Amino acid sequence: MDAQGFTEHGRRHANLVGSIAYNVLSYLGHEERVCEVAAVAGFLHDIGNVVSRADHGQTGALIAYDLLKDADITYADLALVLSAVGNHEEQYGQSVSPVSAAVILADKSDVHRSRVRKNASIAFDIHDRVNYAVEASFLRVDAEAHTLTLELTIDTEISQVLEYFEIFLDRMIMCRRAAETLGCSFRITVNDVPVL
Questions:
Q1: What are the respective helix, strand and coil percentages of the chain, to the nearest 5?
Q2: Which of 63, 88, 116, 143 has its CA 20 to 30 A from that of 158?
Q3: Of all helices (H) and strands (E), which one includes residue 152?
Q4: Annotation: CATH topology of 11-194
Q5: Count of helices and strands (H, E) across the chain
Q6: What is the pLDDT of residue 123?
């Protein structure tokens, strides 16, 4: 991913997505086993990138199967992991379970300048510029209000808010649908202002 100039998709991203997916389901009251399955799926969700960026979710599901088939995991939990890994990309994915919904929300909420490669040109690449402009991102779970709010702090001197939605609109639609799978509404605040 580094050689191709893509944003960081390594251990930091994998660990964070696993942790956020776990927390989303935990805060919403799902049983511990389901939360742990979400953490595993979140950690493995981008493993297909070792083969190719294209269709990496589906490739990743096949790799995850090989990694987990002999582990101490039930077939039902294995299916939850594989379907979450295989369905996390907005080009073809769907939130087919609470686990996959949590992985989608966790993955798409990891927007931050720490993901931008050191040799990136924020002047020319809108993806790098938008990621670099995001100083903080946090997915807030309010179980009582049934809301999942992506809270962003964006340096508008680097990138305007509109650029965020220009490149991430499909992701935000996917997040809205994932939140609905969890019985919640999806919201976004930018610099403490509700925008969705």
A1: 50, 15, 35
A2: 88
A3: strand 147-154
A4: Hypothetical protein af1432 (1.10.3210)
A5: 7, 4
A6: 62
Distances, alpha carbon 60 to alpha carbons 20, 53, 73, 143, 175, in Å: 19, 10, 18, 31, 20
DSSP 8-state code for residue 69: T
pTM: 0.90
Burial class of residue 110, CB neighbours in 10 A (0-12, 13-18, 19+): buried
46, 56 in Cβ contact below 8 A? yes
Output Rg (C-alpha) for the chain, integer angstroms: 16
Instruction: Kindly state the tokens that stand for 33.
Output: 């086993």
Give backbone dihedrals phi and psi of 192, rounded to 5 degrees, phi first. 70, 15
- Give tens-digit pLDDT for 95-113: 999 999 999 999 999 888 7
